[in-house]
User: Which sequence fits this backbone?
């Protein structure tokens, strides 16, 4: 659940408050915010006070999943580019904190970094995974996070001149990337131990394919992953994605 300081980061630090009112919300647009931006059936008319006071009451009294949907709606309703240029650096820091809050509320321990190498397929798969996890739980996001990671390593190879086959598996491309890409050839402290961890993750990636094919919603499977195991898979894939992305920033 959100803490009081986190809630005030959302209202005062990101949306902004003036004369007791929250952002540019009117009573009408505040009421429209929940169904339009959050996919929630919430009616602010049942709460007392200004738009800010009503928003605070709703956010504080909601469960974790509802809080996550409201925060996601805030980022859609108040995108960073809509703030004056002089405020954007501060607002961007608050936006990152809100994104971390959303991930925690959804049960996702590993936040999503901004990708260096990407394409439309990867970005769409990531957005789909986030929406599906928010709306239906982690089991629904396993297929999309697998697609995002597979598309990402393929795109890195493409932009780095590393050849891959059209139907090459995720684990095969990952191993090829590790052996051929200069950013992954670091010989820093305890590199042998780090390589063992990387190889363990490569073995983990081998298991993502059968999980996706046999226990996710990528096919009409009857036996699906339980929520905890599905979130574990999502976090494992996200960890690999973030590690690679940070290496390629160097």
Assistant:
């Amino acid at each position: 659940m959100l803490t009081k300081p986190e809630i005030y980061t959302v209202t005062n630090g990101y949306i902004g408050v003036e004369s007791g009112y929250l952002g540019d919300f009117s009573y009408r647009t505040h009421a429209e915010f929940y169904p339009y931006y959050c996919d929630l059936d919430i009616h602010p008319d049942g709460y007392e006070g200004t738009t800010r006071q009503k928003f605070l009451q709703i956010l504080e009294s909601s469960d974790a999943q509802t809080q996550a949907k409201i925060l996601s709606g805030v980022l859609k309703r108040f995108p960073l580019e809509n703030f004056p240029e002089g405020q954007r650096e501060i607002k961007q820091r608050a936006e990152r904190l809100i994104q971390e809050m959303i991930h925690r509320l959804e049960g996702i321990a590993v936040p999503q970094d901004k990708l260096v190498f990407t394409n439309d397929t990867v970005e769409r798969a990531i957005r789909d995974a986030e929406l599906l996890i928010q709306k239906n739980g982690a089991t629904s996001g396993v297929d999309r996070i697998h697609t995002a990671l597979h598309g990402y390593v393929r795109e890195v190879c493409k932009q780095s001149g590393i050849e891959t086959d059209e139907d090459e598996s995720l684990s095969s491309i990952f191993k090829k990337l590790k052996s051929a890409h200069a950013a992954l050839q670091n010989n820093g402290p305890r590199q042998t131990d780090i390589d063992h961890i990387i190889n363990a993750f490569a073995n983990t990636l081998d298991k993502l394919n059968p999980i996706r094919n046999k226990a996710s919603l990528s096919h009409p499977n009857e036996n699906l992953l339980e929520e905890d195991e599905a979130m574990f898979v999502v976090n494992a894939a996200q960890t690999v994605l973030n590690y690679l992305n940070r290496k390629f920033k160097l």
